[in-house]
From TrEMBL, chains A, B, C, D:
<dbReference type="InterPro" id="IPR036271">
    <property type="entry name" value="Tet_transcr_reg_TetR-rel_C_sf"/>
</dbReference>
<dbReference type="InterPro" id="IPR001647">
    <property type="entry name" value="HTH_TetR"/>
</dbReference>
<dbReference type="InterPro" id="IPR050109">
    <property type="entry name" value="HTH-type_TetR-like_transc_reg"/>
</dbReference>
<dbReference type="InterPro" id="IPR054129">
    <property type="entry name" value="DesT_TetR_C"/>
</dbReference>
<feature type="DNA-binding region" description="H-T-H motif">
    <location>
        <begin position="35"/>
        <end position="54"/>
    </location>
</feature>
<keyword id="KW-0805">Transcription regulation</keyword>
<keyword id="KW-0238">DNA-binding</keyword>
<dbReference type="Pfam" id="PF00440">
    <property type="entry name" value="TetR_N"/>
</dbReference>
<dbReference type="Pfam" id="PF21943">
    <property type="entry name" value="TetR_C_46"/>
</dbReference>
<keyword id="KW-0804">Transcription</keyword>
<feature type="domain" description="HTH tetR-type">
    <location>
        <begin position="12"/>
        <end position="72"/>
    </location>
</feature>
<protein>
    <submittedName>
        <fullName>TetR/AcrR family transcriptional regulator</fullName>
    </submittedName>
</protein>
<dbReference type="InterPro" id="IPR009057">
    <property type="entry name" value="Homeodomain-like_sf"/>
</dbReference>
Amino acid sequence: MGAVKSKRMPRAVREQQMLDAAVRTFGQRGYMAASMDEIAELAGVSKPLVYLYLNSKEDLFTACIRREAAALTEAVRAGVHPDLPADRQLWEGLRAFFTHTARNPDGWAVLHLQARTHGEPFAAEFTAMREEIAALVTQLILAAAREAHRDPDLPEREVAGLAEALVGAAESLAAWANATPGVTARQAAATLMNFAWAGLGDLMAGRPWSPPEEPERAQAG
Amino acid sequence: MGAVKSKRMPRAVREQQMLDAAVRTFGQRGYMAASMDEIAELAGVSKPLVYLYLNSKEDLFTACIRREAAALTEAVRAGVHPDLPADRQLWEGLRAFFTHTARNPDGWAVLHLQARTHGEPFAAEFTAMREEIAALVTQLILAAAREAHRDPDLPEREVAGLAEALVGAAESLAAWANATPGVTARQAAATLMNFAWAGLGDLMAGRPWSPPEEPERAQAG
Amino acid sequence: MGAVKSKRMPRAVREQQMLDAAVRTFGQRGYMAASMDEIAELAGVSKPLVYLYLNSKEDLFTACIRREAAALTEAVRAGVHPDLPADRQLWEGLRAFFTHTARNPDGWAVLHLQARTHGEPFAAEFTAMREEIAALVTQLILAAAREAHRDPDLPEREVAGLAEALVGAAESLAAWANATPGVTARQAAATLMNFAWAGLGDLMAGRPWSPPEEPERAQAG
Amino acid sequence: MGAVKSKRMPRAVREQQMLDAAVRTFGQRGYMAASMDEIAELAGVSKPLVYLYLNSKEDLFTACIRREAAALTEAVRAGVHPDLPADRQLWEGLRAFFTHTARNPDGWAVLHLQARTHGEPFAAEFTAMREEIAALVTQLILAAAREAHRDPDLPEREVAGLAEALVGAAESLAAWANATPGVTARQAAATLMNFAWAGLGDLMAGRPWSPPEEPERAQAG
DNA sequence: CATGAATGAGAGTTCATTCAT
DNA sequence: CATGAATGAACTCTCATTCAT
């Protein structure tokens, strides 16, 4: 049922197998309902080996969070090109985000659902990642203000709130896109981009933000 | 510490005491870490009575989710007056939402953190509430379109995505507002209203949406 | 195999059954080798009940030590009549000691072998009992000195050493008497009394201490 | 921290290193709490080598007991000179005993605390040593009787009991001396010699046994 | 109804022990 | 020989759940 069983692998490889199994199990069952037995079996190893390499359920969970957080952050960062205008940067970042979460739903569940829900040590790991991304977004918002030749008199907390709202909307749309068949990462990104950049008011007034045409995948149906 | 112990109360009252205790315990400890012992003690009743009335931990948790979901939905619905213009309706709905979640943090934690995190049966309950609120928001968006004298060529799914984004942003800001000292429900609502209605683009261009003045609570300190 | 299984007993009774089983198991297997499973089975209850009543293996062990220490101390104290001369008091105390340890070998093993061997918390319990008995013996030694009309210029530490030696000899003889078939408590007491009171020197010189004749059991063969 | 690591040592040497580490670990942690990992690390060898040389934890423990028992027996035997009068022989033997146990506390803990406490196979090893020493003491008692020109009508079992008592008192005093700062081996031996030879009766009557003056170590500070 | 007594099932964790290299 | 990789079996402890009274 789990990975193909093969003996005597170097530690680093086994550890990744374990983390794979753990992310999947934590993501699907939840932190507390996931049992070390199940994780070990899915990883194709015995339980003592899991403990030998990763010490405890808490440490294993933390390792999962760290790995997934790093992967997600890296994916988003890789998508953003700092030379582009602010709206294009946001667009690229969102696309990377939705693509990554769609391809890695268990990892996303670990971060989004499990890490926050099970106490400080884990929530702190998640918060660290969230703040890193929120900082990115905040930079974007300020850059957009500069591009609009305005020194935004928005107080710092207001900007933080906006970033929070944007990240929350993205998180929510990621879950929605994963759960709704036929919604692509690109479409989710477009929806959010419209929402965030133009605002409902402009949208309703017929002034949507328009995504740049890309050669690789046609948008018009 | 728990409810005042008194004998022979009608079943409905006892049940509410149990749900109160359960919501508090689930909200603070989490679903799995909460023990039936603790809930029974906090409710001031014996454990077998909890089982007599609510059958099992799962059923008890489901009952909590249902009650809190109904209360939140009702609060939002009560805040919205269908005669107002769309943006005012949204504004009132958001205010009601942030006020309710701020006053009822354990209930909100049960919904936002616990219900989604512990498997299908519970997540479905949460999703039902979410969709009810999203439907409300969808109506608002369509109403806004009508007010703008435009038949929006936005496909149904696009509107659903916008509603999803708005709800997600609200959820995220509720947690942020609860966790950040000094942020009131009104401020959270204003931040989100700005973000949603005007959009980042307009905001950066210096065209924010402005909340209506209200007599009931002075803003200047 | 264990006690007759009967359900629904009052807590106090069940607790004693558990302690009985625990003393027997700890005494025979040793603290660490004894498993809670075995103790529970021998007590005729389920493991969770043991934990419900006695909290943990450590607490259970401590409870065993306390119970057995109290029983032994009480037995010795009950045997000693303060009105008798010092040598008779010592004689009675030793008889009580050997009788009790012979009738209760598992309890004695718990005290003598297990309590000292498994770390401070337990050793301290044992030491407390040991010091209580040593204090009794010390009083006896000083009383003997008074009876001999001498103010013993033995330093305090010397007296402590003598008490330690006497208690150690008694402990050793108790194990020996239990292990050697046909050695009665009375005989063990006589041997130790001779050794302690007369000393090897006097014994070899043909001047033994002679136990008082008792009606119940004839001494001469 | 452990032994200096160096390759290719003859088997006998490696084995002694392992036994050194094992005695130390068993003595300080106890048999069950001592882990083979810790012992191997302290010995500076790999775990499989420990198994190659010593087969199992049980065998390793048995080997420790045997080595320490032999060392202690040898030390006592070496201290006794058969030409001396009986009391002097006893005195020398006790001094050797207390000196050895004081210098080798871990080995003594293995014998005195661990060997007896963990089941028959080990207790038997300890008992064997104990009987060897007790036999030595028995000879001494009989020699003392001969010196007193008396054919003691003490039955064989009585003599065995006396030896047992003496050995037990010595064991107890060894632990006491090790645990009480400032008590030397010589003082412990003197206390026991007084107790055993003169008896409490003579001691209280002001007729102690007096240790011979020795040139080797000055007593006055 | 309310309660104390009781448990089946399973959780995380550790350890002595072995093999392939 | 030495080592890293690996495990079967056992342990302590917890919890949702149910009777008998």
